[in-house]
Amino acid sequence: MELQSAIEIGLREQEFDVHLQPKVDMESGRIISFEALARWNSSRLGIVSPVDFIEATESAGKIDQLEMIILNKVLSWQSDRQSKHKYLYPVAVNISPNHFYQSGFLESLLRLLKGYDLPSECIVLELTESIRLEDLEQAKTILKNLAKEGIRCSIDDFGIGYSSLSYLHELPISEIKLDRSFISQIHTSGTRAVVQTIIDLADKLDIRAVAEGIETYEQMILLRGMSCSIGQGYYFYKPLPLAQIDEIIKTEE
Ligand code: G
Ligand code: G
Ligand code: NA
Ligand code: MN
Fold first, then answer.
1. Which atom of ligand 2 is nearest to the CA of 94?
2. pTM, whole model, 2 decimals?
3. Looking at domain 3-250, what is its CATH homologous superfamily?
4. What residue spans define the domains of the chain?
């Protein structure tokens, strides 16, 4: 069966699942928030790689439907925790540019939160740098409206697109995620210079910098020494199913 038709079935049958990957305070080792990542075990095709199905869903113009399924699963998990009086960790959900710029996006988010009776602080939107420049004014307006409602935004894969530094101070965002390619090269002094500059800039603008793709102890130590306090990556945790996340945070509670 073709990927496109399998995706249609997958969306209809809600075959998509969510895994969470912790973002960790590198001093204490404590989990402070999560990133939600879509996973798919297709009834027709078996396990499909996220890179493949995300791209195909985007080109089919259906990424908003997929992201709404993910959002619902995340909020349902949060709502379950809220009913048990547990701490609500912020969970970042990846939102593609098409979905972000869709009219009524903010309204449907707010409706969803209200339906679950959850505070806006419990979700964060992770946006790629490709929400960029040609739409800067529009992006600014949407981000301001989100911020007004208490919904925070994070810029994913930060530093690899080219105008990051020039627009950063104009946008109401609360977090940037240093692209994984910087972390894999952090042992080189040139990369460290670039990364330190980004971390210092973020600090001055009161934006939290998160290092993603940390795979080794050495990378963690170098980044911590550069005043980057939050990390994400296989060194700490892989993206895991909700049941396993529940087990892990049980010991933190
Ligand atoms: O974990 P990983 O292999 O899961 O993800 C592959 C790519 O798919 C990453 O770039 C990740 O950001 C992206 N991705 C995972 N889930 C979603 C989602 O719900 N929406 C979008 N737009 N991208 C996602
Ligand atoms: O594009 P985005 O930054 O959302 O990418 C998330 C992707 O990165 C997911 O596919 C996730 O599984 C993957 N990922 C998470 N941690 C690591 C890591 O330490 N190393 C590598 N190579 N990939 C990671
Ligand atoms: Na992401
Ligand atoms: Mn990223």
1. 4
2. 0.96
3. EAL domain (3.20.20.450)
4. 3-250
